[in-house]
Design brief:
Number of helices of chain A: 9
Number of strands of chain B: 5
Radius of gyration of chain B: 13 Å
Strand content of chain A: 15-25%
Distance between the termini of chain B: 10 Å
Largest interface: A-B, 24 and 25 residues
Structural class of chain A: alpha+beta
Oligomer: heterodimer
Number of helices of chain B: 5
Order of helices and strands of chain A: HHEEHEEEEEEEEHHEHEEHEEHHEE
Largest sheet of chain B: 5 strands, parallel
Shape of chain B: globular
Strand content of chain B: 15-25%
Number of strands of chain A: 17
Shape of chain A: rod-shaped
Structural class of chain B: alpha/beta
Helix content of chain A: 40-55%
Largest sheet of chain A: 6 strands, antiparallel
Strand order of the largest sheet of chain B: 2-1-3-4-5
Radius of gyration of chain A: 66 Å
Chain lengths: ~550, ~120
């Protein structure tokens, strides 16, 4: 039976990809890109809103300036009428007072008068309203204004000046065709105290109630020169200015929005865009993350199943190869077995013949003895090859009996006598018990160990054969004085077909190991402290219960 | 062991001429009276005519094999040493072991064979 990979267990989570990031880079990228886009659009939108706000503010400023210009036109109209009256009726005529009274009543001016140049200064000729007296002088602050004023009712304005601590503003227009230089002059009072009879206006409903601002005499923002200024406006912040021509002068209108002109919603639009964009980015990021995780999970499952399938295929392939190899080995085994059996008989006959020759010729003659021993050794080596091959390809169960170790050793040495230059040293414990073994198989083991020892000592040496009693039974040590076993060799020592010899098929130790295993014993190779190596076979003694051998 | 007074007899049964003759020569050289048989039937007919002290017999032979001969021997059987070049089939092993003096695997070292036959003859 072939062992296949364990069945894939359903429900086992495939190994999740562990990485430093808690989320996949792609979902982070999707979130980042969308967040970037929403931030960008929020920025553009805020630019658009700011731009729109600015354009609206400028348009409103222009509108306000136009309106103020219109107001200037009304003043000019009033001055044109008054100068015409003075021109026609003369500077001192009472008709001026009649013409000026409704203008004052309309609260356009605090006082109106006619002034005439007299030497280097000006003198009030006629006056209406409070603040100017006939025969008096106009305030020194307006002298420049009186000199600048143009003809045809084109008035000039003064800088703001204080009279009795109250800020005043002067207007003047030349009366044409009268000499000396005669002008209609008017003063208006700034910072008029609030009229309790007048209900407080709701600025938000008034025109331009959406603006804060100031209207300044002169060309610059100067709180002292402020003619009209809404509470809280100080000329800082987002301010748009417009020059407003008034008569020969130019005033300055400065406005800033009280509330965003584009509306609160438009103002919040960039933030709304950003928030919506971030929320969308977050949702998309989560979506991508979820999809990717699902896909990764699916991929991992597929990969795992594929790996399992491949492992199964590999196992099947290996199993098939093993089967083929086994079949091949079986075929080789059959062949080896057939050849081996055919060789066993002739080899047996040969060894019988050598024995007969030895007994007829006598072994006292060393020369004859040496030749016979050589023949015996070679026959033994050949027999051993055949036996090993048969035992390897067709392992035989041991047939246990009692085996006397020294007796078997002598037999082995007679079957495979040592070469002349190898000395054999035997040492056996006196109380050595019989071993429980298959005599023929154990002989094969010892022949292998002894013939190996001969082979590793080609120039002679000492073969030590020692039997001792051990707790496990009987131990036989076969020691040589050869080169010993190097580490590389030791790893493969008992592998079949491994050999360090030029001759031999490399089955001897593998078969010996297998036989000893089949006896429930052990075969151990060690290097001697001096020279060479030792192989120790430990087997149970006869009479003790056999160990369980599978 | 053999004595001068009574020479013990051995029947060597093997279909292979070389093996049969060398074994017979070896046993003669150590003092046995040796007869040979080249088949199972030959062995049975010799056993029915003569008493042998020991039978040394190959298991695998053409025609009647050694196991069959072992089972056919009538009367009080002599000790039989069975020789085989093959592993004995598992189902036959117990019976063969019970009926024979010993089973040895070929090739059998000569000193061991001589010792074995001597022990069988003494049994």
């Amino acid at each position: 039976m072939q062992t296949l990979a364990p069945e894939p267990r359903n429900g086992t989570a495939p190994p999740a990809a562990r990485r430093g990031w808690p989320i996949r880079p792609l979902s982070a990228l999707a979130f980042g890109l969308l967040a970037l886009v929403s931030a960008g659009s929020a920025f553009v939108s805020s630019q658009v809103v700011t731009d729109q706000e600015q354009r609206l503010l400028e348009r409103r400023a222009s509108e306000a300036a136009a309106l103020l210009s219109q107001t200037g036109g009304q003043i000019q109209g009033a001055f044109r009428s008054l100068t015409t009256v003075v021109q026609l009726a003369g500077p001192g005529d009472a008709s001026f007072s009649r013409a000026a009274a409704p203008v004052i009543a309309a609260k356009m001016f605090e006082s109106l008068g006619v002034v005439q140049a007299e030497g280097g200064s000006f003198r009030v000729v006629a006056a209406e309203g409070s603040g100017l007296e006939p025969g008096g002088s106009p305030p020194a602050a307006v002298t420049a204004t009186l000199e600048r004023a143009g003809p045809g009712g084109v008035f000039a304005t003064s800088a703001v000046f204080r009279k009795g601590g109250v800020r005043h503003l002067g207007f003047a227009a030349v009366v044409d065709g009268v000499s000396p230089r005669t002008l209609v002059y008017g003063e208006t009072l700034l910072d008029r105290p609030p009229d309790p009879a007048q209900p407080v206006e709701d600025r938000s409903t008034r025109a331009f109630g959406d603006l804060d601002g100031g209207f300044y005499s002169g060309g610059r923002i100067d709180p002292e020169q402020a003619v009209i200024v809404t509470p809280g406006f100080d000329g800082t912040g987002r301010v748009v200015t417009r020059p407003v021509p008034l008569g020969v002068d130019q005033w300055l209108l400065a406005v800033s929005p009280r509330e965003p002109l584009v509306g609160a919603l438009a103002q919040r639009q960039p933030w709304i865009l950003l928030l919506a964009g971030l929320v969308t980015a977050g949702l998309v990021g989560v979506l991508v993350e979820v999809l990717m995780r699902r896909r990764q999970y699916a991929d991992a499952v597929v990969a795992e199943r594929t790996a399992q399938l491949q492992a199964s295929l590999r196992d099947l392939d290996a199993a098939q190869h093993r089967l083929v190899a086994q079949e091949r080995l079986a075929a080789i085994g059959q062949l080896a077995s057939a050849v081996g059996h055919e060789l066993r008989n002739p080899l047996g006959v040969l060894s019988n013949v050598i024995y007969l020759l030895g007994s007829r010729l006598g072994r006292e003659d060393p020369w004859i003895d040496r030749q016979l021993k050589t023949a015996e050794r070679e026959v033994a080596a050949s027999t051993l090859i055949v036996s090993d091959l048969l035992q390897y390809s067709r392992p035989r169960e041991p047939m246990f009996g009692e085996v006397d170790l020294p007796d078997l050793i002598e037999e082995v040495l007679s079957v495979a006598p040592p070469p002349d230059d190898i000395t054999v040293a035997r040492r056996f414990d006196g109380d050595l018990p019989a071993m429980r073994a298959d005599r023929d198989q154990l002989r094969q083991v010892l022949l292998n160990l002894v013939c190996n020892a001969y082979d590793v000592m080609p120039t002679g040496g000492l073969l030590a054969l020692e039997g001792e009693r051990v707790p496990e039974g009987v131990r036989l040590r076969v020691g040589d004085t050869g080169a010993g076993i190097d580490d590389d060799t030791r790893q493969h020592l008992f592998e079949p077909f491994f050999t360090t010899k030029a001759k031999g098929i490399g089955l001897g130790l593998a078969v010996a190991h297998r036989i000893v295993d089949g006896h429930g014993g052990s075969l151990v190779a060690t290097n001697n402290t001096g020279a060479g190596a030792s192989f120790s076979v430990t087997l149970p003694a006869a009479g003790v219960p056999a160990p369980l051998v599978p | 062991m053999t004595t001068a007074a009574s020479v013990q007899s051995v029947l060597v049964v093997d279909d292979e001429l070389g093996m049969r003759e060398t074994l017979a020569e070896i046993l003669r050289s150590v003092g046995y009276d040796v007869a040979t048989a080249s088949s199972g039937d030959d062995a049975l007919s010799q056993l029915s005519r003569e008493d042998f002290d020991v039978v040394l017999m190959d298991i695998r032979m053409p025609g009647r094999d050694g196991i069959s001969v072992l089972q056919e021997i009538g009367g009080p059987p002599p000790p039989v040493v069975m020789m085989t070049a093959y592993a004995v089939e598992e189902q036959l092993r117990a019976a063969v072991e019970a009926q024979s003096f010993a089973i040895v695997h070929k090739p059998v070292p000569v000193p061991y064979l001589i010792d074995l036959v001597a022990r069988a003859a003494a049994a």
